[in-house]
Amino acid sequence: MSVNLESGKTMLEHGPEALNRFLASSFEPAIGSEMPQLEVRYKNLSVTADITVTEDVTAKSEIPTLYNTVARSLARMSPLRRVVRKEVIKNASGVFKPGTITLVLGQPGSGKSALMKMLSAQFPVESNITVEGEITYNGVPQKEVIKRVPQFVEYVPQTDKHFATLTTRETLEYAHKFVGAGLAEKGAETFTKGSVEENLAAIEAAKAYYQNYPDVVIGQLGLQNCENTIIGNAMLRGVSGGERKRVTTGEMEFGMKYVSLMDEISTGLDSAATYDIICTQRSIAKTLHKAVAISLLQPAPEVFALFDYILIMNEGEVMYHGRREDVVPYFESLGFKCPADRDVADYLLDLGTRMQHQYEVPLPLGMMKHPRAASDFAEAFSHSRVYADMVGMIEAPMEPELAKHMSEYMDPVKQFRRSWFRNIGALSVRHMTILWRNKAYVASRIVMTCFMGLIYGSTFFDVDPTDVQVMLGVIFQAVLFMSLSQASQIPVFMEAREIFYKQRGANFYQTLSYVVGYSIALIPPSLFEIIIFGSLVYWMCGFVANAGAYIIYLVLLTLTNLVLSTWFFLLTALCPNLDIAKPMSTFSIVFIIIFAGFVQPKSEIPDYLVWIYWINPIGWCMRALSVNEYRSSKYDVCEYGGVNYCSEFNMNMGEYYLSQFGVPSSKTWLWTGAIFMFLFYVFLLGASTYLLEYRRYLAPTNIQ
Q1: CATH placement of domain 8-36+130-410
Q2: Which residue ranges traverse the bilayer (predicted)?
Q3: Side-chain half-sphere CA neighbours of 693 within 13 A
Q4: Is 577 exposed, middle or buried (0-12, 13-18, 19+ CB in 10 A)?
Q5: pLDDT tens, 337-352?
Q6: So where are the chain's domains?
Q7: What's this model's pTM, rounded to 2 decimal places?
């Protein structure tokens, strides 16, 4: 069957299954073999976590406050701490073969999500986590390709974290932009083993497919009615919960993925939508030879029947992993019969729990008792024929064709599809779009900036430069207002961090690209605010009427604003949650204000704390702006207001008034202040990048 390649809509005219068959029939002759395949094997896989147990646990002690967080941190460092070992996955072995679709069943906390994250190289392996066993991809150990695994193994998470003001289409198009770049060109390089006509047909199909892939995903997941609707959140109306779940699934579909691991993708979906999605995934597995594993909660019988294999987990134990048609007979052989009026999936989920008694029947010959705990079922499974068949597949030599696919299609894949520079551009545009769509925030900032500028300007209208305390106070307040107002972005930064964790885990983009791109996106609104507020204060308060001094004033305010916004960004990378980041920002603001050199002059700061004065960006900006004002040509004179400062104080007018507050008067402080703030800004960007890359808050640290 031919497919119209004009658009994503026309490509799906005959349904997803017809499109998949067309792609396979177009690509396979041109590559001289079946579609590239990836087989995932894991053997004796165990994951344990050493977790500090907090004593006297109460509801109050579990609230994520600054005090409780510090107390738990101190408890983990105490020599008297009590550590328990939690087994997340216990000696699991299995294989996900190309061309098959596996249903993963398990109660919450069963370990199924941890297994999927381990196989997709997205499990947060930290110092308290121990991993044993081996995972291979077409025979290659995971540790050899761990940084590149997300490029060919997709993991769809349970949680739906998206930017609320982006539409469904925009969310999917950005995913395509990050991980789908260059795939059509890459495909053209591999389509060389067929006839000229076959190669050209494959190239044409690949270009059309990847060019229209967002439309294809939208059509496959039934998102046409909400493609131009914003995602929304608890405070902003957007798509429905089921549609949001489908966006989460679609976002991870982009790129050249050979294995799909999907974690509870049916939450919020009706049975018909779930059936359609699983049918599409089954078609992809069968025609494009992908390995697909999907965990579902209580799938309907018609959905259950679509799977080839069933994997059942409970308490980290594998209770069963084998063919779907063998699962009911297997558990009947253990003395558990599924009633005719009970869905098989519900029956299987009840095994290993207190609900299993309703299924018990007389034991077969040779069995002494029914299995009770998950460990009993795992022990019984390890002695079964089904397990022996699975071990046989794990121990079987790797097919030469799979090894060839690894070297030809997976090995050349880089960790990221696009350069960090190109990703910076895309991320900057994305975050600018998100920022400007928050109309309430933008409008309130504009009104507040204009209002506060007029308040400051009218209150300190045309300040007498000889009243140095008032003049420096105006400078201090202007710097403080423009810089510390960025603290309001902390909740936005924290929300974006969760989305970054997901997308960075999937190798969408480099951490440096995210940090720099986000910072660039903050520059236009900052410039807008600074020009409005800074101009009102500068001209109404009677600062020196000099174009050069005015431009320097705006530049210094902009640099300080960037430094402080990056500081608050750093705090969100450093702190585990918003409840810690907010008090930490307040704590830092107190230090910034006290040690800026105005509230407490440098001469009155204790020697052991003076270092805070020298690293304080507000202090550096204040010194530079003070020099910019008082060392201008208007005040850089001996005689002013009838007083000869050179003869009376042995310094000119500007130097004299700067000395009253211990402000150094050399004009070099203008450019040294600017250089310091720029270097400090770069340092904060680097620190933020390091924390987001190597210190992510994904793993549990304490339990009751």
Answers
A1: 3.40.50.300
A2: 440-458, 470-494, 515-538, 550-571, 583-601, 669-692
A3: 14
A4: middle
A5: 999 889 999 999 999 8
A6: 8-36+130-410, 420-695
A7: 0.90
